[in-house]
Design brief:
By secondary structure, the protein is α+β, with helices and mostly antiparallel strands. Helix content is 24%, strand content 26%. Helix 5 crosses helix 6. GO terms for molecular function: catalytic activity; molybdenum ion binding; pyridoxal phosphate binding.
Length: 219
């Protein structure tokens, strides 16, 4: 993959790289949650299953190669800050990466980025809010509000390992030939767009492929 679509001069970058600070009591059967992420100094190694020092407690529903890293945009955090009238410090939503200058909601499924000089990732899926997130925020009907807002952030698959750090640039390497963005997949799912995505041959998670097939069949 060559000829990046956006790099250092685009203003797209990491603001922080976050891993779990401590395990907290959670509402699920796993007993604890690793949603409490905090910024790390220096360069953080990134492997196929995520960042060194990070944890996943609910392994039945989270983690694995397709959900190795969770990214959330500062622009969306700022929107939420105004909406609920409180600060949204980096890591509050459980994100590993707080970004600036890249519209994560508009990222296409299967889009690839380079972060810093080494790491390459693929946009895999929107974050689906759960009861752990509700427990974390302690806001009535938070899961519904988060879904209605349509600013879910994205799970990323690690294609090339390496290290990343705050202020690393983000470069979009490739955007596939379809129109299904993180926002579309999370919200209004258009049958025609889903069919085009399926026909494009883009690499999809099995779960999302099944959803796309069901939606496309309604068209």
């Amino acid at each position: 993959m060559g000829g990046g679509l956006g790099g250092e001069d685009s203003g797209m970058r990491l603001l922080t790289v976050n891993v779990v600070e401590e395990l907290l009591p959670g509402p699920k059967e796993s007993g604890f949650t690793a949603i409490d992420k905090r910024p790390q100094p220096g360069r953080v190694p990134v492997g196929e299953l995520g960042l060194l020092g990070d944890r996943v407690c609910d392994t039945a529903n989270h983690g694995g190669p397709d959900q190795a890293v969770y990214a959330y945009a500062q622009e969306d955090a700022d929107w939420w800050s105004a909406e609920i009238e409180r600060d949204i410090p980096t890591g509050l939503f459980g994100e590993n990466l707080r970004t600036e200058g890249i519209d994560i909601t508009d990222a296409l499924l299967g889009e690839t980025w380079r972060i810093g000089p080494e790491v390459e990732v693929m946009v895999r899926a929107p974050r689906i809010p759960c009861i752990t997130f509700q427990h974390r925020m302690r806001i009535p009907r938070w899961v519904k509000r988060f879904h209605q807002a349509g600013r879910p952030g994205a799970y990323l698959k690690v294609l090339k390992t390496g290290t990343i750090a705050a202020d690393d640039s983000i470069e979009v390497l490739h955007r596939p030939e379809h129109e299904v963005t993180i926002g579309h997949m999370f919200g209004d799912q258009d049958p025609g767009k889903m069919q085009v995505m399926l026909d494009s041959g883009v690499d999809l998670m099995d779960e999302l492929r099944e959803i796309a097939q069901r939606v496309a069949a309604r068209g």
